[in-house]
């Protein structure tokens, strides 16, 4: 859903479609998904901006930074799939280089990573192929500000 919301707010990104072989029902073939570079970039950029596991220890670069020779994202708040068009920005980089870790890394990395890498772009590509996504209210962009709150019961600290 975040991907579609971001595409509504970034119409030009929605216009750029990769060419995929579809089934007779117009569904993108699963085996094609990995080859669709711009789609992959849209999904990665969505996961960069709206990580699904945000409750881990948060990390954020407050400005453009070079860290141990790696350039850390520019224009952080902008939806810019192009940043992932370079092959160097894979989910897991070469050994010792992990520029992008939406699935974690190491022993406790996400066991569903391969499913997620397939499922997300598959869903997004078929939604974008089937529909044009635009604002419900003309000129008014959907509010994509997220909040993560933990609710707990009201507690009274007053003794009886
Ligand atoms: C886009 C989809 C997904 C994302 C972004 C994602 C992300 C993550 C992240 C960040 C972690 C924590 C890694 C760490 O602690 O370093 C994790 C753990 C895990 N994920 Fe996912 N996940 C996704 C989909 C899935 C799916 C589809 C499954 C199951 C089919 C799954 C199963 C798991 C399991 C079992 C763990 C715990 C691994 C462990 O602690 O050993 N995930 N995931």
Shape descriptor reads globular
Uncertain runs are none
Which percent range fits the helix content?
25-40%
How would you state the average pLDDT, rounded?
74
Q: Strand share of the residues?
A: under 5%
Rg of Cα set: 19 Å
Which ligands does the model contain, each kind named once? Answer: protoporphyrin IX containing FE
Oligomer state equals: single chain
Strand-pairing-aware structural class: mainly alpha
In N-to-C order, the SSE pattern is HHHHEEH
**Total helical segments:** 5
Biggest sheet features: 2 strands, antiparallel
- First-residue to last-residue Cα separation: 48 Å
Order of strands across the main sheet: 1-2
Please provide the count of β strands.
2
Defining key terms:
160 residues; mainly alpha; two-stranded antiparallel ribbon; 2 strands; binds protoporphyrin IX containing FE
Protein architecture, described:
With 160 residues, the chain is mainly α. It is 30% helix and 4% strand. The protein is built from 5 helices and 2 strands, in the order H-H-H-H-E-E-H. A two-stranded antiparallel ribbon has the order 1-2. Strand 1 and strand 2 form a beta hairpin. Helix 4 crosses helix 5. It is globular, with a radius of gyration of 19 Å. The model has no long low-confidence stretch (mean pLDDT 74). Protoporphyrin IX containing FE binds next to helix 5.
């Amino acid at each position: 859903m975040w991907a579609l919301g971001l595409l509504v707010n970034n119409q030009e990104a929605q216009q750029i479609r990769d060419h995929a072989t579809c089934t007779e029902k117009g569904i993108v073939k699963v085996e094609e998904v990995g080859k669709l570079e711009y789609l992959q970039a849209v999904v990665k950029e969505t996961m960069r901006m709206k990580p699904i596991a945000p409750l881990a220890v948060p990390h954020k670069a407050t400005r453009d930074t070079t860290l141990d020779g790696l350039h850390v994202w520019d224009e952080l708040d902008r939806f810019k799939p192009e940043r992932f068009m370079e092959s160097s920005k894979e989910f897991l980089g070469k050994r010792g280089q992990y520029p992008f870790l939406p699935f974690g890394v190491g022993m406790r990395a996400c066991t569903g990573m391969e499913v997620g890498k397939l499922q997300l772009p598959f869903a997004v590509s078929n939604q974008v192929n089937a529909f044009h996504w635009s604002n419900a209210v003309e000129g008014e962009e959907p509010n994509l500000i997220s909040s993560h709150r933990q609710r707990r019961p009201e507690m009274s600290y007053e003794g009886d």
